[in-house]
């Protein structure tokens, strides 16, 4: 099994060291490199071609949002997981628009961050519950224009799946609730992303709220 290669981008050496130590204990993950500035993260992402970039939002030279935008704009770009804190809510939507596939909070257990890296590396997306709440608040404060979200091409079952995605359910939880298999859920998620022009699961959460499903 090929290990997931991770680039750690954080300007705090202690945080990078802590993450390095935890990831070293995972047989299926390896640290490809470290960056202490946003500019360095962009450069190393191009040079090292990691699978996942763990990106701090507040970085010197270039903030995490702009670094994420530049990294994800490249062909075959790695997945980017943004690290945030409770007072960073104004950055969350910006990071989403920049192409981030995950949002984690720094007070999560390090083991949870390891799990998140695995999830995102498979092509899925992951949002910490506390970040989801802030994301929803932003959607409420900035509603889409009437008719901006159309579900006309979405089937009844796909609508059920989309609703559960908006509620934060994982594929396994959706499968259990709808009495279908996890691969079937993945198929529904893939079709929803195609129909709704959503880049990943994070954007499907936004669509679910904009459409009033949650």
Automatic annotation (TrEMBL):
This protein's UniProt keywords: DNA-binding, Phosphoprotein, Transcription, Transcription regulation
Xref: SMART domains: HTH_LUXR, REC
Residues spanning the membrane: none
Response regulatory domain ranges (all copies): 5-121
InterPro entries the record matches: CheY-like_superfamily, NreC/VraR/RcsB-like_REC, Sig_transdc_resp-reg_C-effctor, Sig_transdc_resp-reg_receiver, Tscrpt_reg_LuxR_C, WalR-like
CDD domains: LuxR_C_like, REC_NarL-like
Protein name: DNA-binding response regulator, NarL/FixJ family, contains REC and HTH domains
Annotated organism of origin: Actinoplanes derwentensis
Lineage start: Bacteria, Bacillati, Actinomycetota, Actinomycetes, Micromonosporales
């Amino acid at each position: 099994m090929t290990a997931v290669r991770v680039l750690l981008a954080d300007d705090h050496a202690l945080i990078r060291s802590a993450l390095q130590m935890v990831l070293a204990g995972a047989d299926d993950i390896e640290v490809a490199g470290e960056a202490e500035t946003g500019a360095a993260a962009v450069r190393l992402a191009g040079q090292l071609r990691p699978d996942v970039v763990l990106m701090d939002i507040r970085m010197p030279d270039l903030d995490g949002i702009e670094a994420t935008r530049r990294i994800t704009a490249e062909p075959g770009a790695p997945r980017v997981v943004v690290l945030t804190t409770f007072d960073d809510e104004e950055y969350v939507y910006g990071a989403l628009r920049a192409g981030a596939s995950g949002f984690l909070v720094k007070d999560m257990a390090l083991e949870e961050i390891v799990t998140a890296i695995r999830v995102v590396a498979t092509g899925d997306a992951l949002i910490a519950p506390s970040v989801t709440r802030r994301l929803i608040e932003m959607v409420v404060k900035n509603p889409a224009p009437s008719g901006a979200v159309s579900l006309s091409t979405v089937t009844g079952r796909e609508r059920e799946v989309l609703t559960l995605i908006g509620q934060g359910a994982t594929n396994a939880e959706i499968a259990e609730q709808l009495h279908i298999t996890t691969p079937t859920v993945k198929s529904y998620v893939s079709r929803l992303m195609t129909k709704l022009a959503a880049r990943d699961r994070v954007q499907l959460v936004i669509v679910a709220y904009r459409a009033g499903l949650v």
